[in-house]
Specification:
75% helix
Length: 272
């Protein structure tokens, strides 16, 4: 009962309010006027650029974070001496001790005209622009969300029975075959959890695109901030928010089905 009540009050009721607002109309002074119209949903193509950027950079950022996080998590879980493991894990957490705002401003300097472009210009590569580009936003989201990808994968790999690796080696398996047939399949739960955490948060991200994108690369989160706080078009903003939630639900459902099928096929192979 307490968990169900918390779920109802903190999740379902706010979503219900947003859903009701999405069928309303904008009040003359801002806000929403009760109505029942699909006008707001018909205007969704006007925010197509925001959806396109989100649906492009969020999966790419999730995949890039996975490619960087997996070797790091593998190194920490399998290769590092246990006495150093805790210290190195703390170093992974350290970025979370500072505000994402401060870290984003640091990247603004690094990617700005006096940062990496100036260094590239000094070595002879001129005219490189990094800030206010999709690349800058991608760098920011990978840096900001990398620890959330590392820890679930690390937990899966740290719980890996090392005797399986030793048995594979004794039976003549190469390192690649051992990784492909033992390590990677057993770490899939951590990969699935990390990817879901990062992807869901990236779908609602607005601060990093606003700072590193400079208003030229904006996500749906930036569109929602504009519609609710600046334009005060709550009805249209609610329609955009509902659409974003639907897209996320569809994407996560497809993703979980793929993961479940992969897990089922892995179990079939192990039984055979």
């Amino acid at each position: 009962m307490p968990a169900g009540t918390w779920f109802l009050v903190m999740l379902l009721l706010p979503l219900t309010v947003v859903l009701v607002f999405s069928f309303g109309e904008r009040a003359p002074a801002g806000g929403v006027v009760p109505a029942f119209t699909f006008e707001q949903y018909a205007n969704l193509p006007a925010r197509w650029t925001a959806f396109k950027n989100t649906l492009t950079l969020a999966p790419v950022g999730t995949l890039a974070a996975l490619l960087i996080a997996y070797p790091l998590a593998y190194f920490l879980a399998v290769k590092v001496d246990p006495k150093w493991k805790t210290i190195l894990l703390v170093l992974v957490i350290v970025p979370f001790w500072t505000s994402i705002l401060i870290r984003s401003y640091a990247w603004i300097f690094l990617l700005g005209g006096r940062g990496l472009p100036a260094l590239l210009d000094w070595i002879g590569i001129e005219g490189v622009r990094l800030i206010n580009t999709p690349f800058a936003v991608l760098v920011g989201i990978i840096y900001g969300y990398l620890p959330l990808m590392v820890f679930p994968i690390f937990v899966s790999l740290d719980r890996l029975d090392k005797r399986l690796l030793e048995a594979a080696s004794d039976l003549g398996a190469t390192r690649w075959n051992t990784f492909r047939q033992i390590t990677l399949p057993l770490s899939i739960p951590g990969i699935a959890t990390g990817c879901m955490l990062v992807f869901i948060l990236l779908m609602g991200e607005f601060l990093i695109p606003a700072l590193l994108g400079g208003g030229k690369v904006f996500f749906v989160g930036n569109a929602l901030v504009d519609l609710f706080l600046q334009s005060r078009n709550w009805a249209y903003g609610s329609a955009v928010a509902v659409t974003l939630v639907i897209v996320m639900l569809i994407t996560v459902t497809i993703y979980m089905r793929l993961i479940n099928r992969l897990g089922a096929s892995r179990e079939d192979v192990s039984i055979m």
